Amino acid sequence: MLVGTMVITINLPGIRSLKEKRKIVKSLVERLRNRFNFSVSEVAANESKLQAVIGLAMVSDDGVHIERQIDKVSEFVHADGRFFVSRIEREMFSVEE
Questions:
Q1: Residue 78's CATH number
Q2: pLDDT above 90: residue 78
Q3: 15 has pLDDT over 90
């Protein structure tokens, strides 16, 4: 079994409140869940209105599939004009069954 993970750090310039930030982050999390079938959550910087850290994970027996999906997620978040991506960390590892 393989597990692919991503941690995406986004910056949200011009955001005036946590409520405004949370609306954007919630929308992004839902879109990533629905479109790419990852487990997704905001994992850090919860109280910062200018930054968000989103964690994603996928389990599969096919490493190529995980890599493709991670690439698609990366393209998707870079194309979103509501924020800019400051960092993406990716990792894949094997879990013994």
A1: 3.30.70.1120
A2: yes
A3: no
Which helix (H) or strand (E) segment is 30 a member of?
helix 18-36
* Stated pTM of the model: 0.84
Hey, is 29 helix, strand or coil?
helix
Give the domain extent around 58.
Answer: 2-94
Residue 83 identity: F
For residue 46, what are the contacts with CB-CB under 8 A and spacing of at least 6? none
- The rounded distance, in Å, linking the Cα atoms of 76 and 97 is 32
Q: How many domains does the structure of the chain reveal?
A: 1
What pLDDT score was predicted for residue 87? Answer: 94
Phi first, then psi, for residue 76 (nearest 5°) are -60, -50
Average per-residue pLDDT in the chain? 90
Contact present, 1 and 59 (Cβ < 8 Å): yes
User: Which tokens belong to 60?
Assistant: 């599969």
